[in-house]
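[Automated response] Your request has been received and processed.

Submitted sequence:
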Amino acid sequence: MNSLTVPDDSNSVIVVLGPTGVGKSELSLALAHELNGEVVNADSMQLYRGMDIGTAKLLPSQREGVRHHVIDVWDLDHVATVAEYQKLARTAIAEIQARGRVPILVGGSGLYVNSAVDDLNFPGTDPRIRQRWESELDRIGPEALHDVLSSRDPVAAARMEPRNGRRIVRALEVIEITGEPYNAGLGVPEAFIPTVRIGLRRPRAELDELIANRVDRMWQQGWVDEVRELLERGLAQAPTASRALGYAQIAAYLAGECDEETAREVTTTATRRFVRRQHSWFDRDERINWLEIVGGDQQPTNVLNAALSLIS
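Generated structure:
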């Protein structure tokens, strides 16, 4: 268990989770106003400075005076680890509670959410083993290495994007270090901190349409220009940030590997696939109280009241 202790007299952490584009940010702000709360980010890519439009990051002017934590903390070249995020998030949660306020953990990265509030420990690294698997990744490519992972831990492989070489290498490293499946510690764990978990979801067809509109809107907001600027700052060499959803596709367009419309279409399709994986992760956790949102309107008052009824 992480050595950080949470005050014994603290209230529960409110967790707002769900797939991309479902309306988590809007609800988190409304809850923060109602509950004297502060937001703790649990979106893995919102930790990177400059990755704003494509991560739907609320800029300071959009946060309605609500204090946000664990956001814009890493440079592009930082190699992200869940263990490091866990420490940052738990520290923020403890500090918020010590001030007598309510932490509201918000995000769609399931492992990041669980790492902050559940009893999860993460194996260390072995540079020798890591280097061997990285060399194998360079030799055969991510999809072939994903096949290797499938033969050793099919459950873990099924939860990973076959082109995400870094995650595949990490899984194979952990399997070799621990002698156990990578997914052994990634079931539904015991809680480390008391929580009320509120999940938002929409009908699939409706969410698919919202995602397409969201990608179009991000394009109009200047997502391509954002990626162009980040490439000048070293995005292409960034081990984690360079693979962020949409950023990789736009970088390919800017490199002349596809046209702009293809980059936009591939981003939309990839985002929809990512949403399916988010659902698969969250659906395993019976502790989540799901709120079904139907209709193009966000229905903020109805959603807020339903969420408050779960908390009280």
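Summary generated for your ticket: Strands lie at 13-17, 37-41, 68-69, 102-107, 195-201, 288-292. Residues 13-120+187-311 form a domain with the Rossmann fold fold (CATH 3.40.50.300).
If you did not submit this request, please reply to this message.
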